[in-house]
């Protein structure tokens, strides 16, 4: 007999079906017991009148009759069951997986992730993550973008110089890529519009709630833009697609409205609004104040800050042609935190040579990258969204580790 | 004026439009010249009567009138153009990008990949790759699978012990993951059905046409299977979805038919058919002979070999309960080469302990992985498809490097 998922049981009322899943909970009352079975679609209640109940996390197959029961989850329950145990647990779970709130602290959850993630609330976070990525891709697929998979092993630690992981690569030193930045720009010359969903690596020596040693970066780059505003328009569409995809899969918790026009402030305006301290960057407190301002004045949980000072942006950043010292780079703040960094890039070979020279950087490590610009590149720009950071803001998780599958950090390299 | 793509020009016959792209080729005739402009959608022919023609790979914007012209590519050409150069190349391409066949050997192509990949034939290979991944995902999304992103940094070199890249991880040694095998199995306990598209790393010391140091692995794992045959059925659907996706995007070259029932041979039958040499594995010559057999006898370019000897499969492989010494593991051969490895896995904790013990392996490095089985896991199995190998077979490329974006191998770590 083929298996029926818990969420589909109502369609089978009055009939005998087979379900399969994990024993989520046993509830023994005076004259009857309930076995709650968990599968990938939800929970099913099985009414048991006699015999032993298999312990929590046993894998079972249950053949029984579906009957309507207004009190049961989903409005149906299974009666007169024949229960087959497919697999018995050798150990009890580290905490009760059936409690509505996770009854364990974060270190316990992370140490026991292979079983802890079975908790419906923790599983839901990863479902939100998957739905977000699906919405990201669908939006870009619909806009003529091509998906790419770029090398994660690179010959030199170019982009920032610091915080890279060295790899013993057949006897010489390679580095784990900190971002697909150079590759996605080069591929604009091939496909005009590209995206990548992939791991990036940061040897981040700080133990904070917002940094991971590996995270999933959602990278976009597009050519033939007027300036950074065309990039921001694509980002707006992508965010909208991600939110709709999460909503479509039934995770409506705390989803933001993505306004048609996300409010945008120039860096100098942002500074004036939050107290100009002369720093060429925004402090976390200023980011929070700007998010509050956008919500108050524009009803938006998103706010763009454009025109960051050139001195704080990477060498490939396109300057604002009208405001010396300022760039066509932007950040997107979401719920008080920087979520996305992006901007227009330089596209002329001579501009790259000048930018590297100005920063006192040699040309040789960038040879392959620069060759793309030597052969004609259009005005272009792009952005990167940190997936775990996005999910942690969406699901209101205080620590980005709660949005990652088996997070890696300064201290954690397993499970 | 908003930009029109080359492929959409026929819809604008009689009107003035603006296109943008790269100068693909200049053709000077006696009384007229043609400028062929390449964009992400194809080529457009511009008729030029006077003035200098910008060199190949210049980035241009052309405003002109669309007129029907049966001889022109796409049946239209652009006349009375106003040409704006957005970006000038600083160097000539390493070879002519407009020749129908790539006029360069593989090392030249790889050394100059950032510009070489602009050649339509090379770009098409990467488009086939993207379309394949899209079909892979769509098939699994439609079958209740959840996409995951697993760690690429792991604490021990468990799965094979050899061919791993060591990483300096905050002063201790980590390793680049050779596959998401353990993670995807653990996640069966959470989502039942999962997939991942991501990089895997093999410190492959051999310089062959079929090995890469990094490749893209399409990984699938599903629970509640009867045995490996349920896994093979999902693989068949996935392959069909991949082929249809490539066909849908217009790449019909050499696409195989995926039969409703892919022919399958037991390992012992495969050996008997190709000359039993007593070896517990198939030689490349035997794989080719089996592919020829399947094509001849069943008209299929795919053939399954099931029941590989346990001794040649990893410790987590489920044995065939009816044939001691043989496994529920399979390979899928495609056009003479192993394309997919998969099978049913052990699912009981005690079986894992016994399997490790039998191979003389310690339990400690597997602690996190084993904990999933200690807490109840269903019968499950899965498979992995090497994306570059798939694309190289589809597009009939003799070297897998031709199907990779910026390949990494024993000697190559750039561009």
UniProtKB/TrEMBL annotation, chains A, B:
Residue numbers marked as site, Important for tRNA non-discrimination: 73
MF term (GO), any: aspartate-tRNA(Asn) ligase activity
SUPFAM superfamilies in alphabetical order: Class II aaRS and biotin synthetases, Nucleic acid-binding proteins
Region (Aspartate), start-end ranges: 181-184
Compartment(s) of residence: Cytoplasm
Family: Belongs to the class-II aminoacyl-tRNA synthetase family. Type 2 subfamily.
Function per UniProt: Aspartyl-tRNA synthetase with relaxed tRNA specificity since it is able to aspartylate not only its cognate tRNA(Asp) but also tRNA(Asn). Reaction proceeds in two steps: L-aspartate is first activated by ATP to form Asp-AMP and then transferred to the acceptor end of tRNA(Asp/Asn).
Quaternary assembly: Homodimer.
Protein name: Aspartate--tRNA(Asp/Asn) ligase
Native species: Nonomuraea soli
UniProt gene name: aspS
